[in-house]
Amino acid sequence: MPTAPGDRRIKKVVLAYSGGLDTSVILRWLQTTYGCEVVTFTADLGQGEELDPARKKAEMFGVKEIFVEDLRETFVKDFVFPMFRANTLYEGQYLLGTSIARPLIAQRQIEIAEAVGADAVAHGATGKGNDQVRFELAYYALKPDITVIAPWREWDLTSRTRLLAFAEEHQIPVTKDKRGEAPFSVDANLLHSSSEGKLLEDPSQAPEEIVFQRTISPEDAPDVATEITIDFVSGDPVAINGVALSPASLLTKLNELGKANGIGRLDLVENRFVGMKSRGIYETPGGTILLAAHRAIESITLDREAMHLKDSLMPRYAEIIYNGFWFSPERRMLQALIDASQNSVTGRVRLKLYKGNVICVGRESPHSLYDTRVVTFEDDQGAYNQQDAQGFIKLNALRLRLGSQIGRRGGSL
């Protein structure tokens, strides 16, 4: 029987449990392999699935402590919104829908482990993906002495056939659609859905329409634009069309608007932290709208150098989240800087949603730095002296002129 490091026997483990085939097999495997008590934790992050079956399955396996929790508001308020304050995109495109969900699940797992006296936690991430890294980095950051069990790196159930055989041997219900190879795998939460593998592994082939679950095709979207307003307070969205909404309700509404207008599809080949490239199909309808709106309100409320500094740090911040370092000191440091930049990011953005596009058509703020007296082509009444530009240009041209002179004399630049 396997033991924890130091020959310490595992007595109780908290499993991140979806109720699907894989985690059901993991639950029974933990019970039979480690002979330990298993506590299940199922998080509702807005994945759009009924969670009561997960509770019933856990009960069927004799699990005595079952946690099924609605974390949608916490997910959006404490994880999604802070990330969006930075306009975060991994490799210039990906809105990090999977990455940002993992630290919350891990955090709650550790809290439950401490509450029930568990000495281990377990997850169902495979040994090829990023999620194993994200979960385990979070576990160790929050509870350094925790024991982590990663079944996909330990067991010999290395094929679908062996997995199904184990399920049948241990009376684990297997639905008909699980007996054949799934055409692709899906991960979903309130921010996005992600599809990858099998049918989607050839990046030269366009995804079939059956892959898309959160959006209609842009070609099928209405021929008339949908116009909306989004209100921001200190960098976070608080209302749509003047109606105040909670964080989760607001993102839900944006998802509905994005879906109806074919917004938020992405076909991406990305660089995984573990070293390989992978192809994923992402749908982030509400997040795509939110990103455009947030950039629009920042455009009139942020100082130029503050905005440029923030934009220069964003790729590093995105990489930190993608790689699983949400609870790292460097992420917290960057978050403090990002949050400080948002004090004046308050106002209203007007958008048109049309056939996959998010078009900003207006923005206003009580803290706007946009001054018509300065930018006008009409008489500016002395607000800007155009003659000042001459010295400004000459000073900035000085190094270019000196470099050119050296070059003409045969020197290096």
From TrEMBL:
It comes from the Bacteria. PROSITE patterns: ARGININOSUCCIN_SYN_1 (PS00564), ARGININOSUCCIN_SYN_2 (PS00565). L-aspartate binds at residues 126, 130-131. GO terms for molecular function: argininosuccinate synthase activity; ATP binding. ATP binds at residues 16-24, 43, 124. It is found in: Cytoplasm. Gene3D superfamilies: Argininosuccinate synthetase, chain A, domain 2 (3.90.1260.10), HUPs (3.40.50.620), Single helix bin (1.20.5.470). Keywords: Amino-acid biosynthesis, Arginine biosynthesis, ATP-binding, Cytoplasm, Ligase, Nucleotide-binding. GO terms for biological process: argininosuccinate metabolic process; L-arginine biosynthetic process; urea cycle. GO terms for cellular component: cytoplasm. It is an enzyme of class 6 (ligase). Homotetramer. Belongs to the argininosuccinate synthase family. Type 1 subfamily. This is Argininosuccinate synthase. It comes from Acetobacter nitrogenifigens DSM 23921 = NBRC 105050.
